[in-house]
Design brief:
The complex is a heterodimer. By secondary structure, chain A is mainly α. In chain A, 68% of the residues lie in helices and 3% in strands. Chain A contains five helices and two strands, in the order H-E-E-H-H-H-H. Chain A has a two-stranded antiparallel ribbon. In chain A, a hairpin with a 2-residue loop joins strand 1 and strand 2. The longest helix of chain A is centred in the middle third of the chain and has 24 residues. Chain A starts with a helix and ends in a 14-residue tail after the last helix. Chain B is mainly α. Helices cover 72% and strands 1% of the residues of chain B. Chain B has 21 helices and two strands. In chain B, strand 1 and strand 2 form a beta hairpin. The longest helix of chain B has 34 residues. Chain B is globular. The chains are: A mainly alpha, B mainly alpha.
Chain lengths: 149, 496
């Protein structure tokens, strides 16, 4: 699988998905097009272009999309930590969640020593809470137990 | 004379203490984000969207515009001092800019980049002043068919001028258009692609997608690379160019201004294109083109002027027609919509204080940037010394806060993350992301105008070619489409 063909699969999948759901929407009439017309046309065009890209990728050399699992651990750890942040944010509150999130990023993803990571994460979490919550007036969740302001 | 009296009123608005402060904040923040690799003007603008909620609309747009052109100024600093582009439009500056640094002429390169950016920015503002109002008046004659064919033409231009192939760029546009259909259909109330998820009824927000694909996607991609940076820190007294360098810069600066502004009017990667085309043009005009790449001042002056002039050009379709020419102006459009203002042909006539206040503040902002960028180069260099491993968690957190602040929605944070992963893969596949993001925001307008046109004509497609303006756009779109198809069928030729 080369880069071009890998990319075309995204378009083909999106086009087929859009087509399958669009045909269930009302099409209306020409003088009053329904909500299904536009996504249907876009989906068909996407399938056609995806197919063309797939065919044109036949003669391309195989190119690795990533450097292998070794190089993927950082992006994967960032994604997993971010999922945890999103799930915990409204339950635990912004201050604790952001502190733990930053600690995870600095310690696991950046490879800093634990005490450096702890200091940085605590300081930045507090600073960001003050800047965004107090100065800029952004609503930051306090969590179910309202442990901290 | 009307233009000048309007401009004077604009200066009255822009010269209030509050608006000068906002302009300064925007320019400073823009320069800082422009300096940091991986944090371009789009992320810089989006991060400050929450800060605009408490501001009046004129102040908000003044600050965001300051970030936009400030980032263009700042992007050249890392290109020249570290051979790493601060943002995509400064890629070409790395060639001769860094070569000048290695020759000990970093200061001269920085000075000419700032000087050229100021001239390009100022001349492009003149272009906005004289072009946007008549264009807006002309656009008031547009109905749904004209708007539809114009947007169709804009998308085809995107495909022609994008950094990738025409077919892949158009596929990205179509992908963005499809994502843009998610939610409640405004004309009939039907739910599309929501799968019963209430948070999707309002569609997929532009802010989380833009921040995710550009900001988080860039971080996920950059974190894989182990880059060691060597940063040269010029002394203040080394900042002045010599007489020969100044003389050699004038031509590229003025050519870059015209070129950048013209290309900026077109949707797509205007900044990147303008700097590349300027470089190619200067190389072709040079007496000794073989010296380009080894530290020619023309290789810095032209591209940096062009990319800043393109910023002004991009403001014209945004302010006069309500069509954002790039992701950064698309975010500004979102901010205007949040404040209840719809950019378009009526903006200049109904809200002149916003338009002329913005124009005047851009003049002020350009001066601020010229004064800021050179003396503060030492401070910006200090930012560059912050390891990316410490910087990226801060950027991630700010992206999350910025997205959460829009609707206080954890669901949108998930959209942000999914968009980030998508952006990561787009980068790996070397797909141009800007067309996808632009299509997401313009797509609903395209659909609305298409359906309204057919409703008016009773189902007849002839409405798109019966009117002369619409017919003109349609013909140009057809020519563009056929030209691109022919180009795709020909074997690729080597490019400079």
């Amino acid at each position: 699988m080369n880069r071009i063909r890998a990319g075309s699969l995204l378009f083909l999948f999106a086009g087929i998905y859009g087509f399958a759901l669009s045909i269930e929407l009302p099409m209306g009439k020409l003088k009053q097009p329904g909500p299904g017309v536009f996504p249907l046309v876009i989906s068909i065009l996407l399938i056609v272009l995806g197919g063309l890209i797939f065919v044109s990728g036949k003669k391309q050399e195989k190119i690795e999309l990533t450097g292998g699992l070794k190089e993927l651990w950082r992006p994967i750890s960032i994604v997993l930590l971010t999922v945890a942040f999103i799930i915990a944010l409204e339950r635990v509150g912004y201050l604790i969640t952001s502190c733990l999130y930053l600690l995870g990023l600095f310690w696991f993803a950046s490879g800093l020593k634990w005490w450096v990571a702890a200091m940085l994460s605590g300081t930045l979490a507090l600073a960001s809470w003050y800047l965004f919550g107090k100065i800029l007036g952004v609503h930051l969740p306090m969590g179910y137990w309202r442990l901290l302001p | 004379m009307d233009v000048f009296s309007n401009l004077l009123n604009g200066f009255q608005t822009a010269l209030s203490l509050k608006n000068i402060y906002l302009c300064f904040t925007g320019c400073l923040w823009g320069s800082m984000v422009g300096v940091l690799p991986g944090v371009g003007p789009l992320v810089g603008i989006t991060l400050l969207v929450p800060a605009t909620y408490g501001l009046d609309v004129t102040g908000a747009i003044i600050m965001l515009a300051g970030i936009y052109y400030g980032a263009m100024y700042g992007g050249s600093t890392t290109s020249i001092l570290m051979n790493i582009p601060g943002e995509s439009a400064s890629v070409i500056t790395c060639l001769d800019g860094y070569a000048m640094t290695r020759k000990g002429r970093a200061g001269a390169a920085l000075f000419i980049a700032a000087w050229g950016s100021w001239i390009g920015g100022t001349l492009s503002i003149l272009g906005i002043m004289f072009l946007a109002p008549p264009l807006a008046n002309f656009a008031m004659k547009f109905g749904p068919p004209e708007m539809f064919t114009l947007l169709l033409l804009a998308f085809l231009l995107l495909g022609s001028l994008g950094t990738g192939s025409f077919i892949t760029t158009m596929a990205m546009v179509l992908f963005g258009l499809l994502i843009g259909t998610v939610g409640v259909d405004l004309l009939t109330g039907a739910l599309r692609f929501t799968h019963g998820v209430q948070e999707l009824y309002d569609g997929i927000g532009f802010v989380p997608v833009a921040m995710g694909t550009f900001g988080i996607g860039e971080i996920l991609s950059s974190i894989e690379e182990k880059v060691t940076r060597e940063v040269y820190k010029p002394k203040f007294r080394e900042l002045l160019p010599n007489r020969e360098e100044l003389r050699a810069s004038w031509g590229p600066i003025f050519r870059g201004s015209g070129l950048g502004f013209t290309i900026g009017l077109l949707p797509g990667a205007a900044h990147i294109l303008s700097s590349f085309i300027s470089y190619i043009m200067e190389k072709r005009l040079a007496k000794r083109p073989e010296e380009f790449g080894s530290g020619r001042i023309e290789g810095v002056a032209g591209p940096e002027t062009a990319n800043n002039a393109a910023t002004g050009g991009a403001m014209v379709p945004f302010l006069a027609l309500g069509i954002p020419a790039g992701p950064a102006t698309a975010v500004m459009m979102v901010v205007l919509l949040i404040h209840g203002i719809r950019p378009g042909p009526l903006l200049i006539s109904e809200q002149p204080q916003i338009f002329w206040g913005l124009i005047a503040s851009m003049y002020i902002g350009n001066v601020i940037l010229l004064i800021l960028n050179l003396p503060l180069v030492g401070l910006f260099v200090s930012f560059l010394r912050i390891p990316f491993m410490i910087l990226f968690p801060i950027i991630l957190l700010i992206c999350l806060i910025g997205t959460y602040s829009v609707n206080s929605s954890s669901f949108e944070l998930m959209i942000l993350l999914v968009s980030g992963v998508l952006g990561y893969f787009f980068r790996k596949l070397q797909y141009d992301i800007a067309p996808f993001v632009l299509a997401l925001i313009i797509g609903p307008i395209l659909e609305e105008t298409f359906r309204q046109s057919l409703m008016r004509s009773g189902g007849s497609f002839s409405i798109f070619w019966e009117k002369p303006i619409s017919l003109t756009f349609l013909l140009v779109a057809c020519v563009l489409l056929f030209w691109n198809i022919l180009r795709s069928l020909r074997p690729r030729q080597a490019e400079i």
